[in-house]
Amino acid sequence: MMNRIITIGREFGSGGREIGRRLAEALHMDYFDREIITEISQRTQLAEEYVQLVVERKPHKLYPITIGRTMQPVIMPVSQTDQSIYIEQHRIIKELADKSPCVIVGRCADEILKEYKPVRIFVYADMESRIKRCQERRSQEESYTDKEWRQRIMEMDKKRSKYYEFYTGKKWGDKQNYDFCINTSCLEIKSFVPRFARLIEAEKDI
Amino acid sequence: MMNRIITIGREFGSGGREIGRRLAEALHMDYFDREIITEISQRTQLAEEYVQLVVERKPHKLYPITIGRTMQPVIMPVSQTDQSIYIEQHRIIKELADKSPCVIVGRCADEILKEYKPVRIFVYADMESRIKRCQERRSQEESYTDKEWRQRIMEMDKKRSKYYEFYTGKKWGDKQNYDFCINTSCLEIKSFVPRFARLIEAEKDI
Predict the structure, then answer these.
(1) ipTM score here?
(2) Which residues are CB-contacts of B136 (< 8 A; sequence separation ≥ 6)?
(3) What is the model's pTM?
(4) N or C: which end of chain B has fewer CB within 10 A?
């Protein structure tokens, strides 16, 4: 019997990670997000920063290129590395899903784990509340103006969108790809999640 | 103090009406859908069938037209009738919201009642499950093939979409316009709604 899985897609700054973390806590499930990057890094012997960079940017298809006059197909080494990172990520996500019931944030887990019939959640919010959230949550080093945050939010969403579309062939954030879409603009996440946990634990026998 | 309001937008055949009805029941709120048409009909002395027709089709802006050589602006009577139906609908929805806490399905109630800060829900499902639902719920007279239902579903959605966009200037079904979007494709509505009612009754102090 397959483990119960919850996947969370989220707009940058919408609080999707927080919902995921609190949901895992409320349902006594494991939670994975950043941990997947660390695991890939250990397995591939590549720096976490590099792995992060690769899984966040739009992947390029591997294609043979011709150099000079040789006309021989050559695979670019950098793409091979990237490809191995994707393969590793895919493998790790499956392993995690097999090990225990869990909540996985991002990384196209909804598609990778579709045969587990996960509860697929998408978290979003209006731009204003996302900027506000980013300003409140920023680390010491991240001192941006509202305008800069807006820019950053749009860039991050664009990356996620391209990444998702490349791997799944589906539109990122399109409600048809999810079971529940939650607008956090007017939501107090902390008090919302325990109630939401009770709602979905009866669904699909979580 | 304003009454608590829940508005429900829905794709045709997705079960949005059923969710609305059951939600009203669970939360002891009034429920309005078809009742609004009946009320408009009584107030305007127009047949329910005609009112239904008007509120379902894309409205035309009122504009003066010139007939023959007179160059005098003339308002077409049919448009005046239509306009009075829209005005009546707007007025009735506000009256209902003032009278008691309620669930209102469709009719751009989310926009008309925005100052009430309603909980805005959108209900959707994949085409397959909507066709299935239509086949199960059809009346004796409605004998359509799956292909015909698909056609009908797409037509109804198109009407709703145009109507909503005309009155609100916003995109129908765009998740940004709603607080929760619910995919009913794999949902057992009857058991889901009581749990969902508990979830949202704590939101915005319903």
Answers:
(1) 0.83
(2) none
(3) 0.85
(4) N
